[in-house]
Amino acid sequence: MRLFGIKTCDTCRKALKEINNVEFVDVRVDGLPNDVRDAALTQFGDSLLNTRSTTWRGLDESERARAPVELLADHPTLMKRPLIEADGQLYLGWTAATRTALGLD
Question: Chain-centre distance of CA 45, in angstroms?
Fold first, then answer.
């Protein structure tokens, strides 16, 4: 199981405390692998972009108009967090549904 996020993200920290045997991938440092990014975009679409983030607010209108795949390639911190990959499935966010799907509730 891999958790993609940012080490300073409170939600990612909560998820890391609750999940055992997880590999943490800091997207600010390591980036988001292209195959994971593409699969997540296919599954979650534009909801993968965190339009409430400080990174998003720092972009001008022409940057915001770019395709999500390009934005995430250039600014992986725009991804909603955490993105969890487990047994070939992707889960976005640390919600009750995610915890249940991972067998943590």
Answer: 12
> Is this prediction's pTM over 0.90?
yes
Tokens describing residue 56: 């998003």
Model pLDDT for residues 55-105, shown as the tens digit of each residue: 999 999 999 999 999 999 999 999 999 999 999 999 999 999 999 999 997
pLDDT single digits (tens) 3-41: 999 999 999 999 999 999 999 999 999 999 999 999 999
**Which residues belong to the active site?**
9
H or E, element range at 57: helix 54-57
Contacts of 82 (CB under 8 A, 6+ apart): 3, 4, 5, 9, 11, 12, 15, 92, 93, 94
Query: Could you give the C-alpha distances from 93 to 38, 46, 59, 99, in angstroms and in order?
Result: 17, 14, 23, 10
